[in-house]
Design goal:
Layout lengths: L14 H27 L6 H11 L7 H8 L3 H13 L3 E5 L7 E5 L1 H22 L4 H20 L5
Antiparallel strand pairs: 1-2
Helix pairs in contact: 1-5, 2-5, 3-4
């Protein structure tokens, strides 16, 4: 557990120093969240990369092609094939033929995959709750608004599967 505390930036800190400090804090918190999630995912038999693919698949309006998943996940297609193979073996998703083009294979969640997503959501919330435990409700609400302001540009981009 990371018990380091970070003192507030001194009043004379330059904008660049504050930005650097924020970058360090965001990266450190991201790593802590990732470690906590990995610990909570381990009993489920799902890796963080597999969890990311399942979450991405859940947000698609229709079953995507593997190339679409690779683009969405920003990975090479071979990486998606490896993830899909493992998740298909666990019966969390399945390959299905495209109804309009028999040469195209699409990927869809199975019932087991939908149940796994519920477990994944619980693991993510539990990991976040551990990290956010020192904050009261007002501080959490303020942090949510600040992070939403930073996330607006990313959220404005269309989600494509």
């Amino acid at each position: 557990m990371d018990t380091r505390t970070t003192a507030p930036a001194p009043p004379h800190a330059t904008a660049d120093e504050v930005t650097g400090r924020l970058a360090d804090q965001l990266l450190r918190l991201s790593r802590r969240l990732h470690r906590a999630q990995r610990r909570l995912l381990e009993p489920l038999g799902i890796t963080p990369a597999q969890a990311r693919l399942l979450r991405t698949l859940a947000h698609c309006d229709e079953p995507p092609r593997m190339a679409d998943l690779a683009h969405r996940l920003d990975v090479v297609p071979r990486a998606v094939t490896t993830l899909v193979d493992a998740l298909e073996e666990q019966e969390l998703l399945r390959r299905v033929p495209d109804p309009h083009n028999r040469r195209v294979i699409r990927i869809e969640l199975s019932d087991g995959g939908r149940r796994a997503l519920a477990d994944l959501r619980l693991a993510r919330r539990t990991a976040a709750a551990e990290i956010l435990a020192p904050l009261d409700d007002g501080s959490r609400a303020a942090l949510t608004e600040l992070l939403a302001a930073l996330d607006r540009n990313e959220a404005a981009e269309p989600r494509r599967c």
